[in-house]
Amino acid sequence: MSFFGFGQSADIDIVLNDAETRKKAEHKSEDGRKDKYFLFYDGETVSGKVNVTLKYPGKRLEHNGIKIEFIGQIELYYDRGNHHEFVSLVKDLARPGELTQSQTFDFEFTHVEKPYESYTGQNVKLRYFLRATIGRRLNDISKEMDIVVHTLSTYPELNSSIKMEVGIEDCLHIEFEYNKSKYHLKDVIVGKIYFLLVRIKIKHMEIDIIKRETTGTGPNVYHENDTIAKYEIMDGAPVRGESIPIRLFLAGYEMTPTMRDVNKKFSVRYYLNLVLIDEEERRYFKQQEITLWRKGDIVRKSMSHQAAIASQRFEGSSYPEKPQTQSNAEDDG
Amino acid sequence: MSEPSVADTRRLNSKPQDLTDAYGPPSNFLEIDVYDPQTVGVGRNRYTTYEVRMRTNLPIFKLKDSCVRRRYRDFEWLKNELERDSKIVVPSLPGKALKRQLPFRGDDGLFEDSFIEERRLGLEQFINRIAGHPLAQNERCLHMFLQEESIDRNYIPGKVRH
After folding, report:
1. Other beta carbons within 10 Å of A215
2. Contact with chain B for residue A197, Cβ under 8 A
3. Looking at B3-155, which runs of residues are DSSP E strands?
4. Where are the domains of chain A?
5. Which of B9, B17, B128 lies nearest to residue A188, judging by beta carbons?
6. CB nearest to A198's CB, from B28, B60, B133
7. CA separation (Å) from A146 to A32, A127, A132, A231?
8. A323: helix, coil or strand?
9. Residue A248 in contact with residue A232, Cβ under 8 Å?
């Protein structure tokens, strides 16, 4: 009985076995705060200890069972009550009974599948966490520990450039080119804008990166657009035949990998938006989707053995041939 | 099999620019002047006209140098035509100044010099802004306004074929 007087209660603490060696990654929470969490990859084992500390030593703690769960879930903000669990594992630590003293329980979730990357967005959140629970008749005692999961990819075999001619008939014709269609999060977008016909008075040109988060299905699809970056690439009026270079370093911006139809619940896609602005502030734009992916870090000896195995699953495919001699002289024409 | 540790950021290849394009006149030349206000008529039937001179090298305009006389009412007509027939957000005109048409004013009302100058400037900004709009350039009403001696209010609205 914990209504009157001093009923027994307990504190729960979850500690990972590799807490000393495992890397942490920063992740933004719903309220915008940045916190660090243990970083896991798909296939890695999650193991540790659950410490149950009795609040009042000497008193018994009656319980209906102690368990630990590993959960991966998607939470849509407009439908908070329903959590969509796509990973749900449970380990029983203690059968119903009583604890007479503080105790530690070991647990291991072996080679856990973590198919999606952790994501906290404008209308949806995907998270992974451990939850230890002491079941009791009236109120359970539980503790959650969030972890962060990153999904890694390798250099794609096929990565064609994007090259297109667009315009308004008899007014403005341009050809834009971006060197790839798939970029990793620390990549550089190298491109150019070539002017074929300029019959309007252009004042400047910029390239924006737009993130579009899509939630819902069918008639209830909702898009949330967010301009992550605005980068001016030209100031002044171009004429026919001019070529404007683009060099946009992605590492400076907070972005996630492209996520398509995650568990059929949401998508996060990225677009390059080329915008030309004329003297009367009229805007002419062309949007183009790009795919973003996360590249694994170089495997270092200090990484835990398990993480090293996980990385090796993703590294090690063939890379596109690059010429070893790069000329440093650039034609500034 | 070594991974490139530094991204290749060299410029993409591009065609060298033709020098006549680089140093020749730009293809987007379009200038419209609204000037020389003149009062026409007598007594209560007076009104002001302005010279509207357009110089351009845009192929869509038949005349590369045109000059017409227009009054405020004609600008209003153009604005209405464009708002009705196209999806363009038409810029605003300087005000109608109805108060200036009332009697017993201390000044010259509609014919006050400072007011005419203010209106002239507003009309010039208006016509330059709309004439440079790629969609407005397709409308017959714009071409008639800029390049025909008088505005035929019974014209057939439509698009200009290039």
Report:
1. 22
2. yes
3. 30-40, 47-56, 65-71
4. 10-149, 162-293
5. B9
6. B28
7. 16, 7, 12, 35
8. coil
9. no
Closest chain A residue by Cα to residue B19: A241
CB atoms within 10 A of CB B55: 15
- CA dihedral for B33, B36, B40, B45, sign (positive or negative): positive
Tokens of residue A188, six digits: 């550089």
Segment A264-319, tens digit of pLDDT: 999 999 999 999 999 999 999 999 999 999 998 764 434 455 566 666 655 544 43
Do residues B148 and B140 make contact, with C-beta atoms less than 8 angstroms apart?
no
Q: What are the two backbone dihedrals, phi and then psi, of residue A163, each rounded to the nearest 5 degrees?
A: -140, 125
Is there a contact between A172 and B17 if contact means CB atoms under 8 Å apart?
Answer: no
CA distance A75 to chain B (A): 37
Q: How far is CA A250 from CA A192, A247, A257, B119, in A?
A: 16, 10, 12, 49
* B81 class by beta-carbon count within 10 Å (0-12 exposed, 13-18 middle, 19+ buried): buried
Question: What does the DSSP 8-state code read for residue B62?
Answer: S
Pairwise CB contact (< 8 Å): B21 & A239: yes
Contact B58 A199 (CB under 8 A): yes
Q: With CA atoms as reference, report the closest residue to A69 among A28, A12, A23.
A: A12
Query: Coil, helix or strand for A281?
Result: coil
CA distance B146 to chain A (A): 18
Q: Do domains A10-149 and A162-293 have the same CATH topology?
A: yes
At the second CATH level, the architecture of A162-293 is: Sandwich (2.60)
H or E element at residue B141:
helix B140-147
**Cβ of residue A191 closer than 8 Å to a chain B Cβ:** yes
pTM here is 0.85
Q: How many residues does chain B have?
A: 162
CATH code for the part of the protein at A10-149: 2.60.40.640
Position A4 pLDDT exceeds 70: no
What distance in Å separates the CA atoms of residue A314 and residue B3, rounded to the nearest whole number?
Answer: 13
Q: Say yes or no for a CB contact (<8 Å) between B18 and A241.
A: yes
Judging by DSSP bridges, how do beta strands A182-184 and A283-293 pair with one another? parallel
* All domains in chain B, ordered by first residue: 25-145 (3.30.1520.10)
Is B12 within 8 Å of A190 when comparing Cβ atoms?
A: yes
Q: Which among A170, A172, A282 is the nearest to B60, CB-wise?
A: A170
Q: Work out the widest C-alpha separation in chain A, in whole angstroms.
A: 88
Distance from CA of B112 to the nearest CA of A (A): 30
pLDDT digits (tens, 9 = 90+) for A82-128: 899 999 999 999 999 999 999 999 999 999 999 999 999 999 999 99
ipTM surpassing 0.90, yes or no? no
- Whole-angstrom distance, CA of residue A302 vs CA of residue A189: 32
